[in-house]
Structures are given as C-alpha cells and as structure tokens.
Amino acid sequence: MGGHWLFYFYALKRSNVAIGMISLFTFPVIIALLEPLFSKVKLDPIHIVLGLMVLLGIYILAPDFDLESSQLQGILFGVLSAICYALRILMLKGHIATYNGTMLMFYQVVVLTVVLAPVLYFMDTSNITTQYPYVLLLAIVTTVIGHTMFVNSLKYFKASTASIIGSTQPIFGIIIAFFF
C-alpha cells in the first residue's frame, strides 16, 4: 500500500491528475494477468488482448518517449503504483477469507503511519496547515472508506472482477471534478 501511495502521488506531481489516474487504473489488467500466479484461476486469453489494448492506450498518452518528459515520468510512476496496488490486492485476496477486511486495512494504515511519520520531520510542512481539511477528506473518503469497501468486496468476487468493477472510479472522479 505504501508503494502504491508514494508512486501514485509522485505520478500526480510529475504530470497531472488525468495522466496519474489513468495510469493507475491499469491495475485491473495487471491483476487479471497476475491472478493465475496467486490463485487457481486460469489465465483468460482475452486478458492478454485487454493488456495489449491498455499498453496501446498508455503509449498514446505519452506525447513522446523521452525519459526527461514529465508526462512520461508521470505515466511510469502511475503504472508502478498500479503494479504495487495489484500486488497488494492479490495478497489481500488470500487473507480476506480468514481476516476481517476492515481490520486488514486498519493494520496497513497504522503500519504505514508509523513508517512514514518520520518523513514529516524532514519535509517542509509549512503549507500543509491550510490543507488539513482536504488531506483529511482525501484520507477518509478514498483511503478509509474506498479501500476498505474494495478489500471487503474481495470476499465475494475474484480480484480481477472486483478491480474491473472498481475501474469505474475515473468516470466518477471526472463527474465529481466537473461539479467541484
């Protein structure tokens, strides 16, 4: 989860919200391709076709293949975030039958808070005081509620199915961005 967070926000910083979000949402295809390695699910050949389509879409996003391009850096960090997110979901899928999804999320957030808290002593946090309400809203809505609901859905769906359903998030993100 920590890798997903760090790489996702760095993708947003290097490019923009649209590129970061679209790059992150390659995770359903990554899950579909990796799920056979984590469970007894067979690889569906259509997932390979979908994976190639996603790669084509990511290629179209990049204005040019120059590692100095902030757009390409954003895409690469977004896809790296998607890989971390996919691995996290596939690992959680194996534990959701035994443990409560809410508690799994709670433990992840607590551990990450302890691990990442020292960074606050080295960063310039002078601007964050005016952003606390927005950071709290982001933390509660997208992390606490969103991720917990997603983890709990793994009890009822394959990881690839749950992630494909979850991939409607960019559509809702665009609609919410339009109003706000």
Lay out the secondary structure.
Layout: H1 2-14, H2 17-24, H3 27-38, H4 45-61, H5 70-93, H6 101-116, H7 132-153, H8 159-166, H9 169-179
Averaged pLDDT:
83
* Total domain count: 1
Percent in helix? over 70%
Task: State the major sheet.
Answer: none
Structural class: mainly alpha
Q: Give the overall form.
A: globular
DSSP summary, beta strand count: 0
* H/I helix tally: 9
Quick rundown:
Helix 2 packs parallel to helix 5 (70-93) and helix 3 (27-38) packs antiparallel against helix 4. The chain is an all-alpha fold.
Can you give a write-up of this model?
The protein is mainly α. The protein has one domain (2-179). It has nine helices and no strands. The chain has helices spanning 2-14, 17-24, 27-38, 45-61, 70-93, 101-116, 132-153, 159-166, 169-179. α1 (2-14) packs antiparallel against α5 (70-93) and α3 (27-38) runs antiparallel to α8 (159-166). The two termini are 28 Å apart. The chain crosses the membrane at residues 15-34, 46-62, 74-92, 104-122, 134-154, 161-179.
Which properties best describe this structure?
180 residues; mainly alpha; globular; transmembrane
